[in-house]
Amino acid sequence: MKKVLFIGTADNGYWVADVAAEFGYDIEYSGFVVSSNEMLDNALRDSYDYIIIDISELYISGPDLEFTIKQIITGSSAAVGIVAQGIPNGSVAVTSCIAAGVKNICNSLYVGELRKELQYLFKGESNVEMIATQTNGRRDIINHKPLRDINIARKTIAVAGSVDRIGTTTQAIQIVKFLQMNGKKTAYIEANNSGYVGDLLNTQSGARIENEALGWVVVRDIDMFFDLSQIENIYQMGYEYLVFDFGSMQDDDFQEIPFYEKDIKITVHGASPSELKAFDQCIEKLYPRNVVYIFSFIPKNEEEDVLEMMDDRSDKTYFAPYTPNPYSYSGENAYPKIIQFEQTKKAATEDTEKKKKGLFGRKKKKRDKGVTDNE
Question: Coil, helix or strand for 373?
Fold first, then answer.
């Protein structure tokens, strides 16, 4: 019996099993996948007749997607299909899949149509010609010319809190300010349903709509976007960094998969009893991941207790300074370590002047106690 691998969750790909059963095929689900490397590892770990990759919930650049799918096609003898539910024919995601050599793409919005599209794969037929014809006559897609002339964000940063009102948005904006101070073209992305960016138009002096179609608002020289449906277009705007504010991990609509897909993942926590309870609820998912932990509202004399609590994650644990105004950079010296690039001389000087006294005092205290400084 032929084997089918669905790279994605059974919740998203339940309908694929029905179509496979019509052809007498067994299906296997990879489960939660958050990176290109995991996608590749799952595809090549065994021998399959068909590999179906769900990219519907991933924010992945065109070149990265194309490269990974080419590796899968080259390294496997399987026929490869793509599920891109609701993603338009002319999008970077779809054109990059076609450029990689994929012959079957299921990107209709409704499951009934997706089932029909998947049948092409199991019949050994291609539906790419039909997709290209529907893409405003763009025949260059068939000739494998991906959209390589666009500017893709070099780094994506995700910020999420274990509870509401713990300083998640403040941290996201502070990171944007830090990157701007270092000459990096950076934007803030509202990846939650708080409506924060829209509210700023009524509460922040000088806030303006730059482009309504893109959901683009400018607040105090920060480019902010609130419409995630425009993410493909935002990726093409030449930003070096995109900082995604995912809100609270306790929210029912928290976007777990997109959060873990980002290059740098930062979580924000507190140390009150209720905040620690929320932290414990999140830690099982966070622990295996390469995640940074920032604690807000922690008195200096309690920081060592928090580091001891964090145990083998203490080297990824930092403390947020008091920041009453998120749009005024606090001088937080952890960001260069988290984001890992050299500060400009101006930014580094400002940072040192703001933090010098407290930083040296804390180091001396820790050395006296034989504790390694983890900030």
Answer: coil
Could you give the CA distance from residue 98 to residue 214 in angstroms, rounded to a whole number?
A: 26
SS3 82: strand
- Within 10 angstroms of residue 148's Cβ, the number of other Cβ atoms is 11
> 135 with 178, same domain?
no
Other Cβ atoms less than 10 A from the Cβ of 44: the count is 16
The burial class, CB within 10 Å (0-12 / 13-18 / 19+), for 30 is: buried
| pLDDT single digits (tens) 49-77 | 999 999 876 656 778 889 899 999 988 88
Cα atoms found within 13 Å of the Cα of residue 79, Cβ hemisphere only = 17
CB neighbourhood size of 291 (10 A): 20
Short-list 43, 54, 44, 50, CA closest to 11: 54
pLDDT at 258 over 60: yes
The pLDDT score that the predictor gives to residue 294 is: 96
218 and 271, same domain (yes or no): yes
Domain holding 167: CATH number? 3.40.50.300
pLDDT at 354: 42
pTM beyond 0.70, yes or no:
no
Same-domain check for residues 109 and 207? no
Question: Any idea what the Cα angle at residue 236 is, between residues 148 and 54, rounded to 5°?
Answer: 80
Whether 135 has a pLDDT exceeding 70, the answer reads no
Question: How deeply is 307 buried, as exposed, middle or buried, from its count of CB atoms within 10 A (0-12, 13-18, 19+)?
Answer: buried
Range of the domain at 257: 155-369
Confidence of residue 145 (pLDDT cuts 50, 70, 90): very low
Tell whether the model's pLDDT for residue 352 goes beyond 80. Answer: no
